[in-house]
Amino acid sequence: MIQKVNYIMLAMVVFMGFFMFGISENVKGPAIPRIQLDFKLNEVHLGLLLALNSLGYLLACGYTGWLSRKIGLKFANILCFVAMFVSGFLIYISPNYATFAASYFLMYIGNGMLEITLGIIAAKVFTKNTGTMMNLSHFFYGLSSTFAPIVAASIMNANVSGNVIGWRGMYLISLSLSAIPIIPALLSKFPSNSGNGSERVSIGQYMKQPVAWLIVFILSFGVTAEMAVGGWLVNFLEKSYNFNPALAAGYMTSFFFCFMLARLLLGPFIDKIGFVKSLLILSCFAGITIVTGVIIGKPAAFLLAVSGIGIAPIYPTVMALLAKLYPENIDTAMTFTLIVMGITIVIGNFLVGAITDLFKLIFTTAYGAEKGISLGYSAGYMFIGICCLICFAGTIILLKRLKKDNKIL
């Protein structure tokens, strides 16, 4: 009975943690234009702010596994929520850009630590139905990510005693919610992250394993596609298909609906047929729907929304695969995987923009400005589908490698 209660409490920590992660990551959309206005920031300042955030996230990913072994997984996890809570207060009182940037950096340190600790907890607690539970955990991230921008905009415009809450108050309120998961965390007994000394491997040893690089390869292209859809779908539909903003936003909402539904419902299917075979099917499905949607054009635009079904489970399924392959070294595996993935995603998203601009220039020269813009955006979005197909190709190689090592999962 006590074990069951502890399992429920730890599951609450994971689910609420991912929910909080989605909020902290996605309230910035409606806030950034107002922050830019208040601090009189140009695009260079804004770019530096976002670059520092990425640096903070990657830095935290680098040391959190080590920290969780030194001070314990429980205290490392609580520290994440404390960092996020404190950053909300510091953002609220920031008098200038420098202190605001430092406060924002602290928030992303908390985010990076949170992703690693939640991943370790999930890997050690969800030993049964791992695919289902990993996908369900990330469903909560998707759920909060969907509603965070809408709720953030509403809070910023809300009026209290004649004063508008604004972006400062919105961050204070949003990040104050990170105190809630601390309660079940304090009441829970966390699994040990010390591991068996003889079975532990260093980052250097882990990097020598071909499977480790194949997993990073698969995950990097899968998550590049996931993030690129969020950044480019609306723009693509408006520029290539001449959709109005409301209609394009509707397709974006439909994509996220399919995305959330897939994480909520496909877990049992993934557990039944296996993680690697699931990745094969899902990445292939995502790639085919995107490429087909771009080639056919407007009549098949719905396929771009449906692609969310294939894209959504890739990240949590790879996390489940890591948990099964490296149960004693999950912190090392996640640290290496997320750091390399983070760097690769930056390159991948840059390539989407670069390909769009390159083909826009080529086609504008050949066919004129209107057709050039349309075809340029089509080429850029086609690359997102190709990323899914590259993910599929990488999974085929991984499957062959695991068969050779007698580790089919």
Description:
This protein is mainly alpha-helical and 409 residues long. The protein folds into two domains: 2-187, MFS general substrate transporter like domains (Growth Hormone, Chain: A); 203-404, Growth Hormone, Chain: A (Up-down Bundle). Helix content is 83%, strand content 1%. The protein has helices at residues 2-26, 28-38, 43-71, 73-93, 97-125, 130-157, 166-176, 182-187, 203-207, 210-240, 245-265, 267-273, 275-296, 302-306, 308-311, 314-325, 330-367, 369-404; strands at 159-160, 163-164. The chain is globular, with a radius of gyration of 21 Å. 48% of the residues are buried. The model has no long low-confidence stretch (mean pLDDT 88).
Summarize the structure.
The protein has 409 residues and is mainly alpha-helical.
Poorly predicted runs: none
In DSSP terms (H or I, runs of 4 or more residues), the helix count works out at: 18
* The CATH superfamily title of the largest domain: MFS general substrate transporter like domains
Number of domains: 2
Key words describing this protein structure:
single chain; 409 residues; mainly alpha; Growth Hormone, Chain: A; 2 domains; two-stranded antiparallel sheet; 18 helices; globular
Topology, please?
Elements: H1 2-26, H2 28-38, H3 43-71, H4 73-93, H5 97-125, H6 130-157, E1 159-160, E2 163-164, H7 166-176, H8 182-187, H9 203-207, H10 210-240, H11 245-265, H12 267-273, H13 275-296, H14 302-306, H15 308-311, H16 314-325, H17 330-367, H18 369-404
Antiparallel strand pairs: 1-2
Helix pairs in contact: 1-5, 1-6, 2-6, 3-4, 3-5, 3-17, 4-5, 4-7, 5-16, 5-17, 6-7, 6-11, 6-12, 6-16, 10-11, 10-16, 10-17, 10-18, 13-16, 13-18, 17-18
